[in-house]
Structures are given as C-alpha cells and as structure tokens.
Here is the input.
Amino acid sequence: MPKVAVIVGSLRKESFNKKLAKACAAVAGDLFSFTFVDISEIPPYNQDQDNNMPAPVLRMKETVAAADAVLFVTPEYNRSVPGVLKNVVDWGSRPYGQNVWGGKPAAVAGTSPSAAGTAVAQSHLRSILTMLGMALISQPEVYITERPGIIAEDGTVTDESTKKFLRDFMSRFEAWVRRTQ
Ligand code: FNR
Here is the structure.
C-alpha cells in the first residue's frame, strides 16, 4: 500500500481540519497507510539553520521523504494559508537542492464553518506546492462546510453523503498516486 504523510494546517486541539484528515484516513484504510506529521514543535523558519535543522523539522522531513504521497488538510486564515503550514512547507523546501516535496504526488483538502471557506487558501497552497514540484491531483476539489455531527472526534464520518464524497476523493487520489509513481 502506498504511504501517505498527512499534514494538518491547524494546531488547535479541537481542529475541524484534524477531524477531516482523520476522516480521509478512516475511509481509505484499505487504500493507503497513513502517518500524521506532528507540526506542533516546528519553530519559525530561519535560513541560518539550513545546515543544522532542529530535530522536529528533521523528523518532519524524514516522514515526508519516506512517504509516497502527501495529503494536506488545512483551514483558511484571512483568505490564505495558515502561517504554521507555510512555515512547514518552507522548512521542507530547504536547504537549496534538498526540497523534500519535489516530485511527490499530493492532495489538498479543507474545511471551514464558512460556505466559501478554504477555497482561496487551497488555491494559494496549490500555487506554492506546484512551484515546489509536487504533482497535485486537481479533482475533486475538497471544500467541506463544517457542520456539527458530520465527522466524529475519531474521524468516523456520520453523514453518508460526506462519507461517499471522501471515499471517492481518496480512491481517485490512490489512482493518481499509482499513476505518478
Ligand atoms: C479564520 N477563519 C476563516 N475561515 C474562512 O473560511 N476563511 C478565512 O479567511 C478565515 N480566516 C480566519 C483567520 C483566523 C486567524 C482564524 C483563527 C480563523 C475561521 C476558521 O475557518 C475556523 O476558525 C476553523 O475552525 C479553523 O480550522 P480548525 O482549526 O478548526 O481546523
């Protein structure tokens, strides 16, 4: 089974996006193995540390390097990518010539209580990841409007249409990963 590194762009304990990421894993346990990357200890990027990266950064880079694909699940902050996620992407892109993202297949998803939520953030993120050489699946776009009770704390999807949609998304992602390998 292909290995997927999952990166959630929220540090919030009760993050809806963390739940969505768990839901993506829950509906696709037969398609992929998943490793959730802990980004909570990753410090602000500093180019002075390019050749002496902090341990949490090295762990993140090792997990991504060992994965066949990356799934980004992110909120939108002020119509863009949350700083913590951009920070992780920046660390992973360095030192120059050792960009961990390059050539990896990837997917982007997000959820927000707002109806238009995460579309702009996802578009910005896609632009960044494309520049870094990731092979992004373009369809389906995954904009989930957060509603109480559609995804349980452990990622169990309790709403049937959401479950079907996420299963279809992950099946297409699996086909995409296999095609790009
Ligand atoms: C938000 N939120 C938000 N939502 C949205 O759809 N578009 C936006 O531009 C913003 N901007 C924004 C900025 C900041 C600083 C915060 C804290 C929040 C609301 C956001 O979608 C909501 O707080 C989600 O619950 C955040 O995702 P997690 O942490 O639940 O995964």
